[in-house]
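Usage

Read records sequentially. Each one opens with the input sequence:
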Amino acid sequence: MSKPHDPAHFAPADGCWTHLRLAPGLFEADQAVQADALACIVVREGRIAWVGPQDAVPRRFDGLARHDGAGMLATPGLVDCHTHLVYGGERAGEFAMRLAGASYEEVARAGGGIVSSVRATREASEDQLFEQALPRLLQLLDEGVCAIEIKSGYGLALEHERKQLRVARRLGQALGVTVRTTFLGAHALPPEYLGRSQDYIDLVCQTMLPALVAEGLVDAVDVFCERIAFSLAETEQVFQAARGLGLPVKLHAEQLSNMEGAALAARYGALSCDHIEHLSPQGIQAMRDAGCVAVLLPGAFYALRDTHLPPIAGLREAGVPMAVSTDHNPGTSPCLSLLLMANMACTLFRLTVPEALAAITRHGARALGLQDEHGLIAAGRPAHFVLWPVAHAAELAYWFGSRPDCTIVRQGRIARTSGHGRA
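and closes with the structure output:
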């Protein structure tokens, strides 16, 4: 029996979506839309067929159904480009340890941190992981997320990494959402490999990654390059293995210290470098030259009570695109609101509103290699957009602690309707 969140329940979004306001900088119109003028988005066969002024819709679309947007603001579907959504257990006790004064590194060395989630994930079955992750993803989708990355990295053994990635694929199919899977086998050293870091990297590169790629479970490869995780040399070995299999790479870079991991990732054409609180000027230039996206994760910054801000001014000056994500994970960012992260990126990191909105749409899509399908309202693309009952685009980053009553079109179907428009 199908469930309410089953895409089989979603009506096709085909038709003319009228009386809309388009968020500046997040659309490409077929005919110029004047500032504050009402606009129309035409959807045919699940794709956007035309975008332009309300009073200039081509006559060839006259026979299509009408969906009245009632003046709502249209943005592309949101993109959550860095999450660890599939895992077992929780780490609230660890949160209490940090409040009592323990550092992130002290928690990890005491047997907490990533390794504690590894134990819980290994103990859970695939079905249990699916049932635990499902409500998390539903909460994100209900706020307008139309594409999401889900990393492995809490299995740290072939059977358990496979289990996480299989659940990620199942979630995308079950909920009708674009899911990009990232293999993060080099997330932490599993207990059984204590003191044998190179042996574990060999396992990641020579056994785990090839097997998971052969099963069609991997879209990209990530590494946690840090003093408490893996060295530059070990990171490069994983990148070389990914390159040999034709996979793009990403990197957890410069979160706790400057390892110059971003420069290494840039040499391998990385899609993104994420966290980057300690990113150096040389790293910024390397990312700019490589077209690498800087993924800002204010949830982890906040939860860890960090005070070392990422170099926003330097990234801005260099023209490095900045994305923002929830970094949803059980230890350092148990957040399920991308709009809250946009607010935090503005208040903590001083992003402007246009930068924050681009960060959770256009640049988030680019960080996943999805820039041709997500992140922009334009003709020829799949229909992924959200209608918001707000007077100003700034409200999407201004309000926090509440969820807008939005209408969501995802994968060409109406996944959610609000009480403000009339379909």
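Summary fields computed downstream for this record:
- The two ends are 26 Å apart (CA to CA).
- Residues 158-175 form the longest helix (18 residues).
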